[in-house]
Amino acid sequence: PQRLKTAGRGHVRNRIKKHNPRLAERVTEEIFTALEAQTVVVAGTGAAVTIVPILARQLQDLTRQRAGVLAQVEALVEAHPLHRVLTSMPGIGVRTAARILTEVVGKDFKTAGHLASYAGIAPTTRRSGTSIRGEFANRGGNKRLKSSLYNSAFAALQHPPSRAYYDRKISEGKRHKQAIIALARRRLDTLYAMLRDGTLYQDPAAPIATEHSLAA
Q1: How does DSSP assign 91-160, residue by residue?
Q2: End position of a domain, from candidates 77, 105, 128
Q3: Taking the complete model, does pTM exceed 0.70, yes or no?
Q4: Terminal-to-terminal C-alpha distance of the chain
Q5: Cα–Cα distance between 31 and 34 in angstroms, integer?
Q6: Is 210 helix (H, G, I), strand (E, B) or coil?
Q7: How many other C-beta atoms are found inside a 10 Å radius of the C-beta of residue 21?
Q8: Same domain, yes or no, for 72 and 93?
Q9: How is residue 21 annotated by DSSP?
Q10: Which of 77, 87, 199, 213 has the fewest Cβ atoms nearer than 10 Å?
Q11: Residue 213 lies in a domain
C-alpha cells in the first residue's frame, strides 16, 4: 500500500492502461479510495512489498504469452481458404472467424436451421399435450458459437441492412437481446449459404462473388 501511495495516481493509472485502458481510471480511483480509507496496518505488509512485484511480472509474462497465442491463431485463420468468405460479412473479424471455423467447418449441417439449432439461436416450441404454447428462447446449443454469433450480430448494427432489420424487430416489440438474436439467426442463413457455396458476402441485389467451397 505504501508503495502505491508513493507512486501516485498518475503512475498507477498509466501502468493499468497498458493492460486495460478502459478500466484504468475506475480501477485507479478504487485503489486510492481504499488506501485512503485504510486505518489498520496489516501484518505481512512488508512481505507483500516483495511478493506483489513478482506477481505483477508473472501477470505481464502471461499477458505477453496470451498475445503471442492470439497472433498465432490469427495467422492460422488468415491462411485458411474460408477466411475471406467469413470476414467478408459485416461484423465478423478474425477471432469470430476462428470460432466459426473451429465449431462449424467439417461438421455436416443439412440446413441452416440445423446449424441454428446447434448454435442455440433457433427458438424452441413448447407443447402441452396437443396444444402449442408458443416459441421460447433456446437455452441450449453450443454456447461458444452462440456467443460469437451474438457478438458479431451486435457489431453488424453499424451495417445499414442489419440495423434496419434490428430496428424492425424492436418496432415489433422485441427487447434488445431478442432483436439481436433474431438478427443473428437471419445472418446465419446467409452465412450458411456463403460457406456452402464459397461465396463472399453481398448486400441484397448485388452480384455474387465466388471464393472457396465449404469442403475446401
Answers
A1: T--HHHHHHHHHHTTTS--SSHHHHHHHHT-SPEEEEETTEEEEEE----S-HHHHHHHHHHHHHGGGSH
A2: 77
A3: no
A4: 57
A5: 5
A6: strand
A7: 9
A8: no
A9: G
A10: 213
A11: no
Are 64 and 97 found together in one domain? no
Name the domain boundary from 77, 92, 118: 77
Work out how many domains the chain is built from and give that number.
2
Distance CA 47, CA 205 (A): 68
pLDDT of residue 74: 80
- 58, part of any domain: yes
As a whole number of angstroms, the distance between CA 155 and CA 179 comes to 13
Phi, psi of 56 (to 5 degrees): -65, -40
Q: Cell 504469452 sits at which residue?
A: 65
For residue 94, the enclosing domain spans 81-197
Residue 214: inside a domain, yes or no? no
Is 198:216 a contact under the CB 8 Å cutoff?
A: yes
For residue range 134-148, list pLDDT tens digits in order: 555 666 789 999 999
Per-residue pLDDT of the chain (216 residues; tens, 9 = 90+): 566 666 677 877 787 777 777 777 887 787 777 766 665 555 555 555 667 677 778 888 888 888 888 788 788 878 888 999 999 999 999 989 999 998 988 888 999 999 999 999 987 665 555 555 555 566 678 999 999 999 999 999 999 999 999 999 999 999 999 999 999 999 999 999 999 999 999 987 654 455 544 444
Same domain, residue pair 46 and 90? no
Q: Flag whether 91 is in a domain.
A: yes
The count of residues in the chain is: 216
pLDDT for 1 equals 54
